[in-house]
Design goal:
260 residues; alpha+beta; Glutamine Phosphoribosylpyrophosphate, subunit 1, domain 1; seven-stranded antiparallel β-sheet; 33% strand; globular
């Protein structure tokens, strides 16, 4: 599980996004208000941004508050879009943390984050993923993480045709998963950034959807739009993304919300 957040708007520092808000990801790491499956989010964190039109990421495999590099990085780095994720293992998970599981993931000019899980992933969905994903792309997947395989499914779908938008491809994948998973519980909140748009899906199968909010008009972030598992403060006009919907956020257009 974990918590995720994203920002799209005028240039701001990483500090303004990741640390400063009263309920930022930095604070949600030990005091999440709406998280069901983990007590703390202390199993690593990461953030992503675009530099020279290419997606970049920074990951750290320990609690966010232990990272001695973060204060300097957060103060000095500026970008018009940020994605952030803090990782919390489910209470039933006893496996050793693989740092490569820390999000966001990067590939094919995309930044990708998944908040949730697929129940018994290695037995239920991973075999189907390996049948669908082309071997060269599958070879780039470095973990047995359900999140990284979901990203692989999206990348595969986008490679199959140039006519699909990221939102359309994501909708295709999530609709297909409903059939593939049948009665298997899966939490499938996903955020993708393509360098222009933020695309977020709030979805689940055989389980209530985890919370996911977006904010189009925030007094502290004029001209920006945000997405977060939990509102980052009480100031902005935070709205729940409806369950089983995808929202697309762009700088110069109103939020576009469609049902899966």
């Amino acid at each position: 599980m974990g918590r995720i957040a994203a920002y799209l708007g005028p240039d701001i520092s990483l500090k303004e996004f990741l640390i400063d808000p009263p309920h930022s990801l930095f604070y949600q790491a030990w005091e999440s208000h709406e998280l069901e499956y983990a007590q703390f989010n202390a199993d690593g964190y990461g953030f992503g941004w675009f530099q020279d039109e290419r997606p970049q990421r920074y990951i750290y495999p320990h609690p966010i508050w232990h990272d001695q590099n973060l204060p300097a990085l957060a103060q000095s780095m500026h970008a018009p879009a940020w994605l952030g994720a803090i990782r919390g293992m489910r209470r039933r998970e006893l496996t050793r943390l693989n740092p490569n599981k820390i999000q966001p993931f990067v590939g094919d000019q995309l930044l990708f984050m998944h908040e949730g899980f697929v129940e018994d992933f290695n037995l239920t969905l991973r075999p189907s993923c390996l049948q669908y994903i082309d071997p060269p792309l599958a070879a780039e997947i470095t973990t047995n993480s359900d999140s990284e395989y979901l990203f692989g499914l999206l990348r595969q779908r986008l490679r199959e045709t140039d006519e699909l938008s990221v939102a359309q491809a994501l909708g295709d994948i999530l609709s297909t998963l409903e059939v593939t998973l049948r009665d298997i519980p899966a939490l499938l909140n996903i955020v993708v950034y393509d360098g222009i748009r933020l695309i977020a899906a709030r979805h689940a199968t055989n389980h209530p959807c985890p919370t996911l909010y977006y904010c189009k008009d925030h007094p502290d972030y004029p001209g920006a739009q945000l997405i977060a598992s939990e509102p980052l403060d009480r100031t902005g006009d935070w709205e729940q993304i409806p369950q089983h919907h995808i929202v697309t956020l762009s700088i110069d257009r109103p939020a576009h919300v469609v049902r899966l």
